[in-house]
Specification:
Oligomer: single chain
Order of helices and strands: EEHEEHHHH
Strand content: 5-15%
CATH class of one domain: Alpha Beta
Strand order of the largest sheet: 2-1-3-4
Shape: elongated
Structural class: alpha+beta
Largest sheet: 4 strands, antiparallel
Helix content: 40-55%
């Protein structure tokens, strides 16, 4: 599809080639990229391949058309998007297309779309339909992405709610355990107070001469049994 053989470009007054003997081939259906630092010659190569710049040496063909000898044929089959927009914002989309088609000699000049050749009108309609289809696909993808985001957000909210409920439930259980622990401590303290009161009461009774919980001492008569007469 694209074939380069020793493609070279040297600008006037330059001491080295901007493109120096570049050779490669791109087959139909392949994706191909030019990678390199600034000044490596990427933009110069693209400009040569799109016939906006003439090479100093070497050859290049696109779909079998030589970029120098058959520049018009090459322009009919290639498209390019520049780094900076070259559209006139005062013109419609079709007027911009027509302007560039006439500028590059693809079709003769006509002041309106309806007066342009039928082949041009058909190409424009096909191109605009393709753009509409692409926009529709992008809108569908955007809708799907939006729906997925909504689902993810809902799941995230549900997870956060579940986590919150779990944490709240755990806190409630801990609070219940603390309450029971406090209740047991209070009961233990009450028992200790009662025990202390009991001990104090026993001590007081003993101090007053009583016997707390002890049987009374036996009398002398009870101690010696009576003798028979």
């Amino acid at each position: 599809m694209i074939h380069l053989e020793g493609l070279t470009k040297r600008y006037k007054k330059a001491d080295r080639n901007a493109v120096d003997g570049l050779s490669f081939e791109v087959r139909a259906g392949e994706f191909f990229a030019l990678l390199g630092p600034n000044g490596a010659g990427k933009s110069t190569t693209i400009s040569i391949l799109t016939t906006t710049l003439s090479p100093t040496g070497g050859t290049a063909t696109i779909d079998g058309h030589d970029i120098v000898r058959e520049a018009s044929a090459v322009r009919r089959i290639v498209g390019i998007i520049f780094q900076r927009p070259s559209l006139d914002m005062n013109l419609t989309a079709e007027e911009n297309v027509r302007f560039h088609a006439i500028l590059y000699g693809l079709y003769p000049y006509a002041p309106t779309y309806g007066l342009m050749p039928a082949a041009y009108r058909e190409q424009v309609l096909v191109a605009f339909r393709d753009v509409e289809d692409q926009l529709a696909s992008l809108r569908l993808l955007a809708d799907q992405a939006g729906a997925q985001k909504v689902a993810v957000d809902a799941a995230s909210r549900a997870t956060k709610l579940s986590d919150a409920r779990y944490r709240n439930g755990l806190v409630s259980q801990l609070e219940l355990l603390d309450a029971r622990r406090s209740e047991l401590a209070n009961r233990r303290a009450a028992v200790q107070v009662r025990a202390a009161q009991y001990q104090a009461t026993v001590g007081l009774i003993r101090a007053l001469g009583g016997g707390w919980g002890e049987p009374p001492a036996p009398t002398a008569a009870a101690a010696s049994p009576a003798k028979p007469a």
